[in-house]
Structures are given as structure tokens and as C-alpha cells.
Amino acid sequence: MNEATTGLTTAFEAERPRLRAVAYRMLGSLAEAEDAVQETWLRADRARVAEVANLPGWLTTVLSRICLNLLRSRTTRREDSYGDQAPEPAAPDGEGEGDPAREAVLADEVGPALLVVLDTLGPAERLAFVLHDLFAVPFDEIAPLLERTPAATRQLASRARRRVRGAKAPAAPEPARQQKAVEAFLAATRGGDFTALVSLLAPDVVLRADARVVPTPEPITVRGAEQVARGAMAATGRARFTGVGLVDGAAGLVMARGGRLALVLEFTVTDGLISAIEVTAAPDRLAGLEITAPGA
User: Domains of the chain, with CATH numbers?
Assistant: First the structure.
């Protein structure tokens, strides 16, 4: 290995975490993000770009083009495969998606709700929003990637930003208390803390789940704090890919695997305790929910 190659390898490895972060937000899948980063390395190595004045910028440009092509291809495949039907939710155990534990960490850092909203954006909107709003890339650098003017690119990012933030005001009468209860429920589930879970639930709490959640032939209903808490303990694997999001304006839990919406929990909080939980996994029902990222 000559000195130039060694220098490029060292420089690229220094950039790899940032490139992976960009690609993951673009694609919502760790496996696809890793593939995109590796393809970027191969192109950099073939082009022998060690002497490029702005190597991070060059790498970001190449990576963005790769991600854009993947997003466009993904959109075409969905249209061909599903027609007017919503896609099936991703498998909760994450099989076939690379390293589930590592992806769970990344998903938690980004926020499952944000990943879900990003997945609803068109490829150009997603690229403009991610590069500008999340990584502070100027519009005049993004525009050539999309073959648009900086002004048009700014409009794409603005439109995406409105989608991410959502148009509805929080519907919960006490949104701060609602979010606190939801966050505590998620923390107790992730931690396997049965006692803490029971303490968050009203004694007569009712959980309703559609048939796709378990799955079962029919929807299920679970009543009572201990019974609901036991069910939550059985779902700790799903909790790794779950985060707080706004569901129709109220704090709830959103599970995203590979950036795709798979499961939603809606909560009713009464006098500080969770009195009802609605769990949805059926694609047609998920499609009718407005998911936005909290604090976006």
C-alpha cells in the first residue's frame, strides 16, 4: 500500500462515522447505510481522491448521490409491489436487517418517529431535509445533486420540514403529563422493571391490540395493571426500536424498524396514571395516523 492510499484510508476512516450517520438518516436502515458508505469508499479509492481539497465535502456528495439512487429505486419497487396497498410492517425482531442491537442504538439516537416521518417523504425532499436541517449542508451544495436551483431545493426542505413538524396541535389536555407517563412506560419496558410498570398503570387499565400485533386471529383485550405489565415485559425486544412520538398530536410510542412504521401505542392518561392503551400494527390503520417527531 503506497503513501497516497494509506493517507486516503486514514482520512476515510476518520469520516466513516459521519458518513454512516448521514446515510442512516437518508435510508433508515443500517444495512443499507453500511452498503452506501462502502460504495462511497470504493469510488473514492478508484478515483484516488486523496489530494482533493475538501475531502469531507466530496465524500458527502458521492454518498448523497448513492443514497438518492437507492431511495428512488426503493420508491419504484414499492409502487410496483404494493400498488394502492400499504406495505407490510417490518418484522419486530429485525431478522435480516444486519446488527439489530447496533441499529437499535442508531434508531434511538435519531428517534423512531423522525425515521417514520422521513420514510413518507419523496427522495428529493428527504435528501434536502437531511443534508440541510440535520447536517447543515448549504442549499447551493445540495442543489446540483437534485439538478435543481438552490431556491427550489430550499422549497423542498421547507416542505419536508412542515411534514416532520406536522400541522396539528397536541390534542392531549395535559400534554406534559402525558409525555412524562409515556416516557416512563418506555423506560420501564426497556429496563424490564415490572414494579415500575405496574405503578404507572391504573388498576383497571385496559389494553386493546389489533390482530396484527401478536398476531392473533382476532383483536385482543387485556385488563388490569399486572396483566398489562406482563404483556409489556414480553415486548422488550420491540422496545429497542421504539421511541416517543406524537400520534395524532398526542404523545405515544412509535416503533420503526428499518425506518418503516411497524407499530404504534396510543395512551390515555387519567389523574397521572395510564388508564388505556391502544396498540396498532395493521397497515391500513397505521396509514390513517399522523406521526410527527416530538420537539421537531
Answer: 1-85 (1.10.1740), 175-292 (3.10.450.50)
